[in-house]
Amino acid sequence: MYSIGDKIVYPMHGAGVIESIEEKEILGQKQSYYVMKMPIGDMKVMIPTHNINGIGIRDVITPSDVEKVFEILSDQKLGISTNWNKRYRENMIKIKSGNIFEVADVVRSLMIREREKGLSTGERKMLNSAKQILISELVLAKNMKQLEIEGLINNHLGL
What we know:
This protein has helices at 63-74, 84-97, 100-116, 121-142, 146-157, and strands at 7-10, 14-26, 29-37, 44-48, 58-59. It is α+β, with helices and mostly antiparallel strands.
């Protein structure tokens, strides 16, 4: 069980801070929800408290894990499929996993591919989504502003 003020990650949405725990009645059923405020876009997300393990809610990474993320971003080797459909499916699985290292790998590989060959509209959307997820967690893990984190990411990617 998490508490108000805890920093958590919601896979496919990103990281945020629990602002409150509220009880709501939806479709005649009362349920308890974490209200999570996202650091990017000033968005709030309601997460049912009874199913946090099932949806993969986890704590924000530690400072030593942040360094591992930056190591992944710095690796300039591109070892992904040339088949668009296969690459898209593999990247989607990585993003859905909620694993920050997998998300960093998606951002890295798509940024390299964009620089070398360009991206389709679908992959560009995927890149933007993965970057937002990555940035939201790094903002909370490093206690920095969004623009500072974007600069660090770009530096590690060699942009």
